[in-house]
């Protein structure tokens, strides 16, 4: 903000200097010494209030800019409106009211931001604010300074809308005036109208000729004053309470004519207060009329004795009290005194049946003499009921309305009713057992265009929602008897079609998609109501739930539950081979199928969520259980029994199942779909090494886990020693073989020979074996005995004696005896015997190999 004047003081109150802001709204002082300073605004920029605060700043070091920011508030303006009558000021005239006028505040020029940025806040001639006066006063909210004007948008009741624009200048009045106040007194002219009379008196010489009555006085008074004092005569005493436009005195001229001055908006009573001749009786009846629009004029023909009057028939709709203009009605007039229908000449024809015109009116060509008459309707307008009862009227009163020529006219109003349609729908629910179920809602729409027989307008377009009575948006709910009863439906010009569509139903039932059509047609002009009936039944929803394995085969024995969206138990059962049926689940609601306990051998399935569809068909829901099977085999794939397993949940670390394998395979129990588990062999069959743990996760397929056991093997070493020296026999070739039988006919394996160490090694699984020497070391005799070896869970046994396991494993000593020396003849027989046995063994080995 430019042009702001500031004074700079030291802490002792001494003024140092005076500065002024530039167009950027800032000012810089570079010659201040170290110290504390106080800044005071002494002159605010135009359009702003003076900021009376003191602002402090301190200079402590060179090169540091100390910034002091000062903010000023804008000066605002406020406009107050006072509403007044242009003639009476704050007092409303007639039945008008000064309350409720709507005014707008408009920009006379572009209203610009008072700062230097030039932003236009309100463009010229735009509406800035609109208010409705409560009472005769009101104020606009505070606005930025500038030129405005006030203009009436809506006049209060009984007043003419003023087009005048009241200029208001919200101009700056100095830096110490926060709000500029302006007042506007807006004056409206009251709506006015008048009344005129044609006054006649009876001519004693001729009953057919009426002459004007000069000098007749009629007084017009605002009806509210008459009501206040309970009578016209009493109100005459208090006309001083009225304004000049709230009453008047009319005196007829030589033509019997008189016209009032302009009277204010409102309802008035007119009555004859003087007659020109004492022998003429004054009019006793009161004439009441209401002025509600500008320049409205009422015209009356007043006679002492009426000999005849024109008759105008006006056809009205009974319900709306408005004229029927679409089609004509025809009627006759019955002369009660002469017992005949009135016949009049129109042109060259004489007619006794009269027809209304396009305005719904008909004026008889000729006036009727005074007397009693009846109007008989002979043809109703299209879409209406004929008025069957005669409509009586008389021509005898002294006061009548006057037509545009001032002639007396008697108006007979005929009201016709439209026939209506009624829809009765019987609503039932499957398996309700005569119990009424609430909650069904239907929407009624027009199935054809429904034409208003009164004026041809469209009551309902096809597809429109139909509201009768308290209905909204075409919605109707069945009653406590299960009945939907909709009466009062318009039938248009004789035909009408409506359609009911169910949009809501009770929980557990299928919403009907059937469109129920009701076609109405008028059969005559006397039937008041046409009733069409229909019925509809809602079927329950049906859900079949099956428990299956992964191949789709039904599983019995599962404990199942169904829960609703609020987790309330809906149904509980144990499965069999047949599906489980649930009826009456709510359409559109989501349900949860839960397996409380799976059958033995099956995993507990994940919850299945399903939503009930709006259909009468059976809705199928299947839950499939996964099966986990464990096969225990050896290296050759042969089934193994007696392996002990545990199954552990990886998340909870809980053991969920224990079992011992058999040769048929084992099914794991107590599993849950989606969980992960570890299958662990805690005890292998005899002679086998326990398999590694297997982790598996249940998804959506059966799982077969094959666990292979490797046999438990031991290494057995046979150490060759000399029977005499008890030392190992090394560096000599020898052969050992293992057999499955004691007779050593079924060879199993050759020993692994280490001549350096003098050992023969075998690898054995659990079982019983026989080891036999086939070839002895050179110089040693071959032993003919077979060594029995037993390997089991208790250990290793050689010829029934348990071997002790050492760090090198299992071993035992095998002694060999040296062959006898060749010079020793005493052993020749033994030598030859050994030779023969060796040859026999060699031949036997060859045969076995073959």
From TrEMBL:
Matching InterPro entries: Ig-like_fold (IPR013783), SpaA_PFL_dom_1 (IPR041033)
Transmembrane stretches, start-end: 828-846
Q: Name one Pfam family in it.
A: SpaA
Which Gene3D superfamilies has this protein been placed in?
Answer: Immunoglobulins (2.60.40.10)
Q: Does the keyword Magnesium apply?
A: no
Alphabetically sorted, this entry's keywords are: Membrane, Secreted, Signal, Transmembrane, Transmembrane helix
Which branch of life, at top level? Bacteria
Q: Is Disulfide bond one of the keywords?
A: no
Domain SpaA-like prealbumin fold, residue spans:
2-73, 77-177, 215-304, 311-398, 430-531, 543-625, 627-710, 716-795
- Family note: Belongs to the serine-aspartate repeat-containing protein (SDr) family.
Name this polypeptide is given: LPXTG-motif cell wall anchor domain protein
Which species is the source of this protein? Answer: Amedibacillus dolichus CAG:375
């Amino acid at each position: 903000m430019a042009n702001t004047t500031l004074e700079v003081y030291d802490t002792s109150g001494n003024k140092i200097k005076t500065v002024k802001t530039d167009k950027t709204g800032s000012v810089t002082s570079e010659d201040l010494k170290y110290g504390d300073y106080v800044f005071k605004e002494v002159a605010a920029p135009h359009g702003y209030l003076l900021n009376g605060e003191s602002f402090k700043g301190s200079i402590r070091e060179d090169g540091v800019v100390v910034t002091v920011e000062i903010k000023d508030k804008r000066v605002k303006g406020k406009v107050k409106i006072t509403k007044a009558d242009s003639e009476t000021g704050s007092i409303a005239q007639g039945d008008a009211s000064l309350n409720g006028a709507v005014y707008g505040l408009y920009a006379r020029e572009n209203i610009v931001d008072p700062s230097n940025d030039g932003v236009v806040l309100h463009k010229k001639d735009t509406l800035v604010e609109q208010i409705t006066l409560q009472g005769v006063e009101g104020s606009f909210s505070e606005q930025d300074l500038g030129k405005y004007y006030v203009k009436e948008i809506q006049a209060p009741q009984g007043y003419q809308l003023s087009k005048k624009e009241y200029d208001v200048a919200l101009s700056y009045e100095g830096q110490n005036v926060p709000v500029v106040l302006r007042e506007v007194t807006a004056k409206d002219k009251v709506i006015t109208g008048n009344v005129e009379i044609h006054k006649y008196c009876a001519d004693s010489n001729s009953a057919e000729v009426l002459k004007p009555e000069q000098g007749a006085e009629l007084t017009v008074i605002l009806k509210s004053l008459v009501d206040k004092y309970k009578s016209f005569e009493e109100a005459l005493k208090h006309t001083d309470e009225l304004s000049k436009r709230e009453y008047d005195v009319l005196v007829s001229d030589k033509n019997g004519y008189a016209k009032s001055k302009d009277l204010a908006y409102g309802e008035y009573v007119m009555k004859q207060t003087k007659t020109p001749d004492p022998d003429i009786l004054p009019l006793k009846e009161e004439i009441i009329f209401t002025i509600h629009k500008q320049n409205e004029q009422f015209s009356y023909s007043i006679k002492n004795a009426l000999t005849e009057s024109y008759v105008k028939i006006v056809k009205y709709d009974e319900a709306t009290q408005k004229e029927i203009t679409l089609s004509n009605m025809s009627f006759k007039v019955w002369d009660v005194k002469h017992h005949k229908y009135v016949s009049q000449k129109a042109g060259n024809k004489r007619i006794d049946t009269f027809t209304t015109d396009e305005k719904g009116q008909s004026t008889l060509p000729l006036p009727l003499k005074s007397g009693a008459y009846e109007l008989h309707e002979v043809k109703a307008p299209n879409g209406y009921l004929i008025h069957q009862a005669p409509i009586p009227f008389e021509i005898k009163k002294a006061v009548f309305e006057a037509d545009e020529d001032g002639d007396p006219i008697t108006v007979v109003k005929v009201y016709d009713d439209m026939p209506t349609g009624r829809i009765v729908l019987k609503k039932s629910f499957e398996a309700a057992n005569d119990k009424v179920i609430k909650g069904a809602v239907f929407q009624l729409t027009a199935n054809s265009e429904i034409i208003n027989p009164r004026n041809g307008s469209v009551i309902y377009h096809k597809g429109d929602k139909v509201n009768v009575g308290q209905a909204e948006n075409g919605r109707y709910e069945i009653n406590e008897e299960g009945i939907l009863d909709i009466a009062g439906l318009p039938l248009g010009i004789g035909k009408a079609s409506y359609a009911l569509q169910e949009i809501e139903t009770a929980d557990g039932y299928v919403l009907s998609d059937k469109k129920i059509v009701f076609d109405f047609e008028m059969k005559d002009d006397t039937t008041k109501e046409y009733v069409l009936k229909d019925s509809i039944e809602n079927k329950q929803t049906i859900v079949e739930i099956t428990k299956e394995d992964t191949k789709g085969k039904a599983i019995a024995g599962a404990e199942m539950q169904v829960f609703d969206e609020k987790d309330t138990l809906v149904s509980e059962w144990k499965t069999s081979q047949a599906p489980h049926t649930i009826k009456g689940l709510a359409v559109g609601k989501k349900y949860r199928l839960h397996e409380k306990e799976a059958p033995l051998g099956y995993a507990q399935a994940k919850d299945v969520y399903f939503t009930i569809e709006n259909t009468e068909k059976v809705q199928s829901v299947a839950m499939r259980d996964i099966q986990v099977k464990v096969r225990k085999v050896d290296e050759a794939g042969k089934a193994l029994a007696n392996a002990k397993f545990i199954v552990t949940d990886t998340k909870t670390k809980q053991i969920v199942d224990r079992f011992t394998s058999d040769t048929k395979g084992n099914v794991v129990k107590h599993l849950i779909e989606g969980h992960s588990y570890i299958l662990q062999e805690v005890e292998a069959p005899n002679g086998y090494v326990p398999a590694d743990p297997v982790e598996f996760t249940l998804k959506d397929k059966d799982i077969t886990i094959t666990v292979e056991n490797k046999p438990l093997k031991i290494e057995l070493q046979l150490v060759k020693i000399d029977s005499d020296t008890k030392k190992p026999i090394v560096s000599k070739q020898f052969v050992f073989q293992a057999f499955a039988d004691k007779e050593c006919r079924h060879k199993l394996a050759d020993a692994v020979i280490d001549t350096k160490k003098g050992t023969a090694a075998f690898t054995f699984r659990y079982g019983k074996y026989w080891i036999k020497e086939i070839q002895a070391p050179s110089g040693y005799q071959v032993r003919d005995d077979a060594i029995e070896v037993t390997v089991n869970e208790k250990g290793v046994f050689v010829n029934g004696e348990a071997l002790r396991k050492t760090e090198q494993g299992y071993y035992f000593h095998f002694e060999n005896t040296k062959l006898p020396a060749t010079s020793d003849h005493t052993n020749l027989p033994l030598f030859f015997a050994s030779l023969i046995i060796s040859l026999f063994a060699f031949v036997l080995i060859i045969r076995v190999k073959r």
